[in-house]
Amino acid sequence: MQHLPLLELAREFDAPLYVYNAQTIESQYKRLTNAFSKVNSLKINYAVKALSNVAILQLFEKLGSGLDTVSIQEVQLGLHAGFSPDRIIYTPNGVSFEELEQAAQLGVQINIDNLSVLEHFGQVHPKVPVCIRINPHVMAGGNTNISVGHIDSKFGISIHQLPHILRIVENTGMHINGIHMHTGSDILDIEVFLYAAEILFDTAKHFKELDFLDFGSGFKVPYKKDDIETNVEELGKKLSKRFNEFQKEYGRDLTLAFEPGKFLVSEAGFFLAKVNVVKQTTSTVFAGIDSGFNHLIRPMFYGSQHHIENLSHPKGKERFYTIVGYICETDTFASNRRIAEIKEGDILCFHNAGAYCFSMSSNYNSRFKPAEVLWKDGKGILIRQRETFDDLLRNQILL
């Protein structure tokens, strides 16, 4: 994989800084499409929520991707980045009906996961094609916050409520053109995913005019050395075979859709931060960086591990450090982690920082959000400017 001059980029654009490798994004996209090359019609809808910078969206548009969106604002970002409405699927949860109306006006594919909303939408817009998100009641995902297909999840319409769905469709005469599921993120057991897929196939048999089946995503990426990941090649081989069989059973050509986010951008991202202080206590050596969970909340929110390396002294003697931020709360990125000896002023690099890092950042403690840089064609391109004090004051009004 292409080498990135991360230390030089930190010097040029300052830290903290997010850097994304375009080549890695392209490679992951091709890896997924190659895994399902036996399917005649495949659609990859990039999950915007993972990393929503419009330059990244433009990159996916050029690759031929569609978009998976969860808010009307993400829909608008996709349109702004050059996507046509037919390449965008909108899968909200708990939004106002006015937002659904707006999506219908924009002409994007709508995906509904609520019986009452389905009935209301069918009564008002019976001719607008709609996808239905079912909840297969299959537990998957590496953390309770990202396991969304289990029986107590707020997402999707229960598979046991299929008779209600069919009654609504019959009564309203609405057109159902897709069936969707998403079990959760960090899927490892392919057999569990294939089991959930059979539930989707069985559901699809009740709808005669489908154009696509959307299997969600949740492919796990490796976060540390020798970490396990989803074997997408094996999944591609097994699911493609079963999908092609189902198309014959169904009697109509269908599109196989996925909506990966983390899988496509996580490994492409690096977060660079400067060490402000090295502080030794009675039991711990802290390395305090010029950042906090306002920039990288995943370790605190999900308990995720990001590999951390010292770019300034990569060959130094390894010592144990607890990496912490400057937020006025406990914000620990890593505890007792072996890292090459750290000195004040060193630049640390957090790997796998492409997904749900900048997109979940905030201005907590009135701190600025960092800049974003895309490494493409051998050069660093600034795709988001670092915030300033004027950005903090924007939209605020003095008494």
UniProtKB/TrEMBL annotation:
Reaction(s) this enzyme catalyzes, per UniProt: meso-2,6-diaminopimelate + H(+) = L-lysine + CO2
GO process terms (BP): lysine biosynthetic process via diaminopimelate
Sequence positions that bind substrate: 298, 302, 329, 356
EC number(s) per entry: 4.1.1.20
HAMAP family per the UniProt record, alphabetical: LysA
Binding annotation for pyridoxal 5'-phosphate: 218, 356
Protein's recorded name: Diaminopimelate decarboxylase
The family this protein is said to belong to: Belongs to the Orn/Lys/Arg decarboxylase class-II family. LysA subfamily.
Assembly and binders: Homodimer.
Cofactor(s) demanded: pyridoxal 5'-phosphate
GO MF entries: diaminopimelate decarboxylase activity; pyridoxal phosphate binding
Keywords of the record: Amino-acid biosynthesis, Decarboxylase, Lyase, Lysine biosynthesis, Pyridoxal phosphate
Orn/DAP/Arg decarboxylase 2 N-terminal domain ranges (all copies): 24-266
Native organism: Flavobacterium caeni
Physiological role: Specifically catalyzes the decarboxylation of meso-diaminopimelate (meso-DAP) to L-lysine.
Pathway(s) where this gene product acts: Amino-acid biosynthesis; L-lysine biosynthesis via DAP pathway; L-lysine from DL-2,6-diaminopimelate: step 1/1
Database matches in Pfam families: Orn_Arg_deC_N
Active site residues according to the UniProt entry: 328
Claim: Amino-acid biosynthesis is one of the keywords in the record: yes
N6-(pyridoxal phosphate)lysine, modified sites: 49
